[in-house]
């Protein structure tokens, strides 16, 4: 399948908050789209091309599966929220173009723990027929006193 037939392929990836670029990997080719939803067996780096941004002590954002040679920032460069940093790709251990985003407590992708991400101004709805393709039990909804919204699998999410 042609990577360009995916809506997200080559879409801009933006910095979620101000910070400092601490790690970049930008040399892995896009993975092949395999049959039966399998991953490319020739992948050497599971995260593919990636960027790590340090925001505060013990808070780093990680972006993986970026398009080869699309990263437009450099290590030790300061970035601002909303600044373009790369393009969505299909590098690494992936079955189709997308990007992996997480907040973690250390610089290392492998030796860190994820931190819940607080979003604001989202429209969140249950994904129709989600249980037909994913039978895992969904987490219970939690209410928050502030405007913080957390997302998880089984939801359809959009901006307000």
TrEMBL record:
Residues 10-107 form the M23ase beta-sheet core domain. InterPro entries: Cell_wall_metabolism_enzyme, Dup_hybrid_motif, M23ase_b-sheet_dom. Transmembrane segments: none annotated. It holds the Pfam family Peptidase_M23. Gene3D superfamilies: Glucose Permease (Domain IIA). PANTHER family: MUREIN HYDROLASE ACTIVATOR ENVC, PEPTIDASE-RELATED. This is M23 family metallopeptidase. It comes from Peptoniphilus equinus. The lineage of its organism: Bacteria, Bacillati, Bacillota, Tissierellia, Tissierellales.
């Amino acid at each position: 399948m042609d990577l360009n037939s995916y809506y997200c392929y080559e879409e801009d990836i933006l910095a979620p908050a101000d910070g400092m670029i601490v790690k970049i990997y930008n040399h892995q080719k896009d993975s092949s789209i395999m049959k039966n939803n399998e991953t490319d067996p020739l992948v050497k780096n599971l995260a593919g091309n990636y960027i790590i941004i340090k925001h505060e002590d013990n808070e780093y954002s990680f972006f993986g599966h970026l398009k080869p040679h699309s990263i437009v920032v450099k290590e030790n460069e300061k970035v601002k929220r909303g600044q373009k940093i790369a393009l969505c790709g299909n590098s690494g251990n992936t079955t189709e173009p997308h990007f992996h985003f997480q907040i973690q407590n250390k610089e290392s992708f492998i030796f860190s723990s994820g931190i819940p991400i607080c979003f604001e101004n989202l429209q969140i709805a249950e994904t129709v027929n989600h249980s037909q393709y994913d039978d895992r039990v969904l987490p219970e909804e939690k209410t928050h006193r502030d405007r913080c919204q957390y997302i998880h699998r089984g939801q359809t999410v959009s901006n307000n």
